[in-house]
Design a protein that fits this description.
Mean pLDDT: 84
Distance between the termini: 29 Å
Shape: elongated
Strand content: under 5%
Order of helices and strands: HHHHH
Radius of gyration: 17 Å
Helix content: over 70%
Number of helices: 5
Structural class: mainly alpha
Low-confidence stretches: 137-147
Largest sheet: none
Amino acid sequence: MSFLGFLRDQRVRFLAVGATNTAVGYLVFSFFTLWVFADVYLGYLISLALSYVVGITLAFVLYRRFVFVVHGHVLRDFARFVSVYLVAIGINAAALPLLVEIVRVPPLLAQLIILLVTTLLSFFGHKKFSFRRGGEHSEGEPPIADG
């Protein structure tokens, strides 16, 4: 398989964009956790919220443009996209204090562990819900045959 053929695979593009978005989000989370809210009780949760604002915005643009390659329905897609992320945020907001306060995992490591789980869940949520087109297929994958 050529490099271009490799890049045509939607899963590869999802992972590449997801890795980029995850790195940016993790850097934002780390920055706020270590330097802005370092002395604030549960400051890592404020950092988490801010990193999600940046991450959701960046991810929506990149997934829409490079992974699922859809057009139109921007507001509907964004609302669906945010709803998938709300599930991820819920999981993250519940798991992060559990890992940090109960299990005593350092916040940066705990967030990294949680990101691995929520990234996998988000692929299916975005593919099957956020960017789904009724009766259509995205330009990034072939149509699904009926029957």
